Structures are given as structure tokens and as C-alpha cells.
TrEMBL record:
Record-linked PROSITE patterns: RCK_N (PS51201)
Organism: Pseudoduganella buxea
Lineage of origin: Bacteria, Pseudomonadati, Pseudomonadota, Betaproteobacteria, Burkholderiales
Protein name, entry field: Efflux pump/antiporter
Keyword match Lipid metabolism: no
Keyword field contains Membrane: yes
Length: 570
């Protein structure tokens, strides 16, 4: 009996070749995703030998996008999204406008139509969320303030792209494209109203119903004590909600899965859900990168090298520079601007969808899709190197304060403590770095015991609110001496580092000890390896989250056993 095994063949080839080339890439000191892309090129139709099923690979990659976005949602609360709205919302919209204008200018120079240039520019303006998440997770900065800005920025980009995908068919006739697929009876404003209404209905449903229903379902399944049922529930929620959101509300798979993760985050089992879905997320992420490689036509590098370079320049330098300037103009630190710039220096899944739609509507020539794919492959390959350049750039700017000062926000009132702050609160105080969930609880305890403290926090909105509440707070990265000086670290009794961003912990401790040799330092961390490294460097008292949880539970058990035991008589 003959069986169609194209799905099995595609998965086996993608994972097998991905493993081999990913291993070779890491041995050559390159990111593993470069190997996955190379495996995709080898399995694609443009290279000799075995050719995998590109259609099936694309669908498998879509599942990878869903699972990745679901995982982000499990770590990204609505509060996190709301906190970065003032930089992510205007920044993303203005950056899309700037990058689209650059793409349209390049397309006009090549003699393309306005419609073709618009689609081309939009495709170059939208970064890949999957690539960003891999970069942030590998560096352990997904939960940091800058990581939340980058994720929030891309969520806004995804929402804008969803609107564009719905409106483009309606706009196609006026842009010189094919009217096929556009509803002749629907006006542009009617289409826009329907789209916004669908998005609002979906978000409202997830906030009002999903926020209670889905965590409850997860808890009921967990009560069965069946690990496989729990894992099945998590995956079914990620894929099922993403699919339903597309069919019922017109939302993309990626955004549907992201909101699914955010509502399941309300459950006490969110951490376990993230752990159970991690292996599948990693496997399908590999399939995503392999599928991208399969779409690539290497001949474009020979036939149109200058055009490829121009496209890559817009992706890597043009829109990144625009994002950098926007973040600085929005009065955020240079380090945040560098992080967002590196995050946006690539394009991915939504760019491919826009390109395919543009060609289907006869707005963009087929050459545009090849150029977009070439730009995506090259920018994704270069992205880890761009992230790696952030550290050297920061150090170079620190050695050139006059240059750094040109980008820093001038006379930012939140970067300095108000003159009205009582001096009695600035001697023997605690300097509390980070005002997230952990920092907020520490602050509440300090208030209860009448202990003065100064908060150092990168989120300017939080600092503004703290000052309105009468709390001494400064905005900025505590890894910089100026921020700790403003927090009066020289007279502080203790430095408490409660931020999840542990990248700058050592510089915070070094600066604090230089300015105040007698200061005591306590640091939070998430894993034993990082804790051991910090202890060896004698940073201060290092507390590991899981370790402290175990200690607390153990103390409770021991206290219980000190009490007289009253059995039930059996």
C-alpha cells in the first residue's frame, strides 16, 4: 500500500539538516540559526538534490510562530504592555512610516509604481518577532525593561500589519493594482471600521472572558495529575486560540497566540505551561528558519547585487537609525535606543505575507519578493552580530561622554532627584534598583518599617507615578554612575538590586563600592550558574528565586513539625 509521507519527509529533512548545519554553525562560532537558514537553502527548489515540500514547511513554520508568540505571552503581562505604551506605540508607528518612505524612495528610483513601492516599503519596515524573541531569550533579557520595549514595539508593528493586510485589497484599485479580491461594495472607511471592530471584539473577549475561562480550564486539567493532558491543554490553547482568532476575528495567528499566552499568564500554572511547551517551541522555531531558507533564491545575489545591498542597507541601517533617533527623542536612554535598533535590524514572516499579497494584487513586480527574501535571509543572519555589537558600542560611548551627551535627553527632570527631597531621607537609606513585582513588594515592606529608600528605575512612567505618590525616584539605568549618584549612593546604607535585568549587576556593584566602600549589596538572580558567578566576584548577598522559595517552604514545614501533632485517629 502506498502512503503519502510528504509531511514526515519534510519534518525529518528539516530537523535533520537543521541539526547538522546548526551544529556546524556553532562550531564555527556562528549563531545556530545561520545553520538552520543554510539547511533551508539546501532543501529548497533552487539548489540541486532533495527538495522538501515548501507548502508543508510553511504551515509547520506558522505553528512555530504561534508557539513562540504564545511563549512570549506567558512571560508578558498586560501591565508590561501598558507600561511601554508611550514609547512603543508612537515609536513603532513613526518607524514604520520612516522605513516605508525609504522603501518607496528606492522603488521609485527603480521605476516601480507607487503601489509597488508602498508594499515594498511596508515589507521592509516590519521586523520578525520570532527572530527578536530568539535574540532576547538567548541573552536572558526578555524580561528586562529594554526587552519589554522591544517586544511591545513589535506587537504594535504586528497590529499595524494586520490592518494593512486587510486594507490593501480595498486600496489596490486606486494604487494601480488588481481589483480582484476587493469587495466593490465596501468602502475604505467601512473596511477599516470592520477591521478595528474585529480587533476590539477579540481583545475584549480575551480580557473579559478568556482571562477567567482559559486559566480555569488549565487548572481543571492540572487537577487530573496527567502530565500529557496538561501539555496537550497548553498546546491546544496556543494553536486553537490562534486559529480561532484568525477565523472569527481576522487576527493573525501570531497575535492570537500572543494574547492566548497573556491570558493564561493569569493562572498560577503559567510557569509550568511555559516549561511544558518549551521543547515544541524550540523544534518548531527551527522549522520556521528552515522554511525561510527554502524560499531564498541565491541567483538574486548574482543578478541584482546592488539592489540587494540597497535593501539590506535600509533594513539594517536605515530603519534602525530611525528607531534609534525616535527612542532618544521620546526621552529614553541611549542603551534602550541601541537595544530597539538592534531588535529591528531584520525582517521576517509578515514581510513575506505582505510581499505575496502585493504580487497577488499585481502591485509589486515578482522581483520585489526575491529582494525582500534576500534582505530577510541576510538581515536574520547578521542580526546576532548586530546584537553582539551593542556592548562595544555602549563602552565606546562611555569613553566618549561628549558624544554620548549629544544623544542623551537634555535636562530631564526625572533623571535628577527634586530639590525638595528631604535630606533626612538621603542618608542611611536603601537604594532600590527596579520597581517591578519584586521591587514593589520590597518597597511596601520598607514603608511598613519606616525605612527610607530611593528607587532607580528605567521606566520613566513608573518614576513619574512614584514621585506623584511622594516616593524619591530617579529615571535611568543604575549601571551608570550618574544614576546612582543621583540616588545618593554615597550616603546609602544598602543597595538592593531587584531588577530582572542582571546584565549590568556587576557595573552597579562596582560603581556603588567605588562611591561608598562600606555599602551592603543584595542581588536577585534566576539561576544557580549566574548566582555562583556573582558570588565568586563578591558582588554581595546573592539570592536565587527558586532557592529562596525552597527555603521558605522548608521553614514552614519545620515550624509545622514543632507544633504538637493531632492526628485524625486512624
Amino acid at each position: 500500500m502506498h502512503h503519502d509521507v510528504s509531511l514526515i519527509t519534510t519534518i525529518a529533512a528539516a530537523l535533520g539538516f537543521g541539526l547538522v548545519f546548526g551544529f556546524l554553525a556553532t562550531r564555527l562560532k556562528l549563531p545556530a540559526l545561520v545553520g538552520y537558514l543554510a539547511a533551508g537553502i539546501l532543501l529548497g527548489p533552487t539548489t540541486p538534490g532533495f527538495v522538501a515540500d515548501a507548502h508543508l514547511a510553511g504551515q509547520l513554520a506558522e505553528i512555530g510562530v504561534m508557539l513562540m508568540m504564545f511563549g512570549v505571552g506567558l512571560h508578558f503581562s498586560l501591565d508590561d504592555l501598558w507600561e511601554v505604551r508611550k514609547v512603543a506605540l508612537p515609536g513603532a508607528i513613526l518607524q514604520i512610516g520612516a522605513a516605508t518612505a525609504m522603501g518607496m524612495g528606492l522603488a521609485h528610483w527603480w521605476g516601480w509604481s507607487i503601489g509597488g513601492g508602498l508594499v515594498f516599503g511596508l515589507a521592509l519596515s516590519v521586523a520578525s518577532t520570532v527572530v527578536l524573541l530568539r535574540a532576547l531569550e538567548e541573552r536572558g533579557i526578555l524580561d528586562s525593561f529594554n526587552g519589554r520595549i522591544a517586544v511591545g514595539w513589535l506587537v504594535v508593528e504586528d497590529l499595524v500589519t494586520v490592518l494593512v493586510l486587510v486594507l490593501l485589497p480595498a486600496l489596490a484599485p486606486s494604487l494601480g493594482g488588481d481589483a480582484t479580491g476587493a469587495d466593490p461594495e465596501a468602502s475604505l472607511w467601512k473596511t477599516l471600521a470592520i477591521t478595528l471592530g474585529q480587533v476590539a471584539l477579540f481583545v475584549g473577549f480575551m480580557l473579559v472572558v478568556g482571562r477567567k475561562l482559559f486559566p480555569w480550564i488549565l487548572w481543571q486539567v492540572a487537577a487530573t495529575r496527567s502530565r500529557e493532558l496538561f501539555t496537550l491543554c497548553v498546546i491546544a490553547a496556543a494553536v486553537g486560540i490562534a486559529y480561532a482568532s484568525t477565523q472569527l476575528f481576522g487576527i493573525s495567528f501570531a497575535l492570537g497566540a500572543f494574547f492566548a499566552g497573556m491570558v493564561l499568564r493569569e493562572s498560577e500554572l503559567a510557569h509550568r505551561a511555559a516549561q511544558e511547551s518549551l521543547p515544541l517551541r524550540d523544534a518548531f522555531a527551527v522549522l520556521f528558519f528552515v522554511s525561510v531558507g527554502m524560499l531564498f533564491e541565491p541567483s538574486i545575489l548574482v543578478e541584482q547585487p546592488l539592489r540587494v545591498i540597497a535593501v539590506l542597507a535600509i533594513i539594517v541601517f536605515g530603519k534602525s537609525l530611525a528607531a534609534f533617533l525616535l527612542v532618544v527623542l521620546l526621552r529614553y536612554p541611549v542603551k534602550s535606543a541601541l537595544m530597539v535598533s538592534a531588535s529591528l535590524a531584520q525582517i521576517g514572516e509578515f514581510s513575506f505575507i505582505l510581499a505575496a499579497l502585493g504580487i497577488g494584487l499585481k502591485l509589486m513586480p515578482p522581483e520585489g519578493q526575491s529582494l525582500i527574501l534576500a534582505g530577510a535571509i541576510l538581515s536574520i543572519t547578521l542580526n546576532p552580530l548586530i546584537f553582539a555589537a551593542i556592548g562595544p558600542l555602549e563602552r565606546w560611548l562611555s569613553r566618549n561622554p561628549s558624544l554620548a551627551a549629544k544623544f542623551e535627553r537634555p535636562a530631564d527632570p526625572l533623571a535628577e532627584l527634586p530639590m525638595s527631597t528631604a535630606h533626612t531621607k538621603l542618608a542611611g537609606q536603601v537604594v532600590l534598583v527596579g520597581y517591578g513585582r519584586v521591587g514593589k513588594r520590597i518597597a511596601q515592606t520598607l514603608n511598613e518599617h519606616g525605612i527610607h529608600y530611593v528607587v532607580a528605575e528605567q521606566n520613566r512612567e513608573k518614576v513619574d507615578q512614584l514621585r506623584r505618590d511622594g516616593v524619591a525616584a530617579v529615571a535611568g539605568n543604575a549601571g551608570e554612575a550618574a544614576v546612582l549618584i543621583q540616588a545618593h549612593i554615597t550616603k546609602a546604607r544598602m543597595l538592593v538590586i531587584a531588577t530582572p535585568d542582571t546584565f549590568h549587576v556587576r557595573s552597579m556593584a562596582d560603581i556603588a563600592r567605588t562611591l561608598n566602600p562600606d555599602i551592603r549589596i543584595v542581588v536577585r538572580t534566576h539561576n544557580d550558574e549566574e548566582a555562583e558567578l556573582l558570588r565568586k566576584e563578591r558582588v554581595g548577598k546573592v539570592l536565587v528565586g527558586e532557592e529562596e522559595l525552597a527555603n521558605g517552604m522548608t521553614d514552614y514545614v519545620l515550624e509545622t513539625f514543632k507544633e504538637p501533632y493531632q492526628g485524625n485517629g486512624h
